[in-house]
Amino acid sequence: xxxxxxxxxxxxxxxxxxxxxxxxxxxxxxxxxxxxxxxxxxxxxxxxxxxxxxxxxxxxxxxxxxxxxxxxxxxxxxxxxxxxxxxxxxxxxxxxxxxxxxxxxxxxxxxxxxxxxxxxxxxxxxxxxxxxxxxxxxxxxxxxxxxxxxxxxxxxxxxxxxxxxxxxxxxxxxxxxxxxxxxxxxxxxxxxxxxxxxxxxxxxxxxxxxxxxxxxxxxxxxxxxxxxxxxxxxxxxxxxxxxxxxxxxxxxxxxxxxxxxxxxxxxxxxxxxxxxxxxxxxxxxxxxxxxxxxxxxxxxxxxxxxx
Length: 307
Known about the structure:
Helix content: 25-40%
Strand content: 25-35%
Oligomer: single chain
Number of helices: 8
Number of domains: 2
Order of helices and strands: EHEHEHEHHEEEHHEEEEEHEEE
CATH class of the largest domain: Mainly Beta
């Protein structure tokens, strides 16, 4: 048995993630960990944002690996907790159990719980980038993607839906927005490094570290988590018919980037100014509902991930 199995490990479990999926899977966790010789103690979150403090405490207590079991929001919170500790040496582990699981996909974690537990036994440490986003002066760190515009409207709609999870949840929410009260396109000014894009109306803009959002839309298919670059996908005005019958199907494959309405860019700094309040999500959680100035900065190699 590899000595890596003996890493001092803390599991942080958000049982409410994935509309309760993480709670349903929790009963299998100990079985799979024992099967692959992975040891560790478990802490469960008790309130929104609790995972940040649990991860911070684990890092300060000297845990070598802190494993987030939940969705992208839980993973983001655990990462933020680790990053809040100066010179933290703890490695982020991932057991995907949310609605999207997009960051887990980006770093190659198996989507099933047993496969993810096996990866904890047999994987390795990789260094990945982190993105700093500042909205009207308030700063956050994230691992996968921030979406502004239509996809943020969809995220807000998912909060009203209780019976679905995963890609079906996002798909149904998107259809509701398309056929009811969507507010896109949004007028905004955008700068990527030294390039100022034309003042334009934008259906959505994604600034990402990973390839995928919402469990199945490959909006930034060329993104890599360790290349030191922000990947930007910008879609100009798209009518409902084109969105449903052309754009969405291509976005699931990443081929939408060839469409005339889409601009794909890379850079190290992005500044977006909304001429009206902008809704935005960060790793599947609400970032803002009426942001005016959103700034992005790449932090290369800031986080260690077990993958």
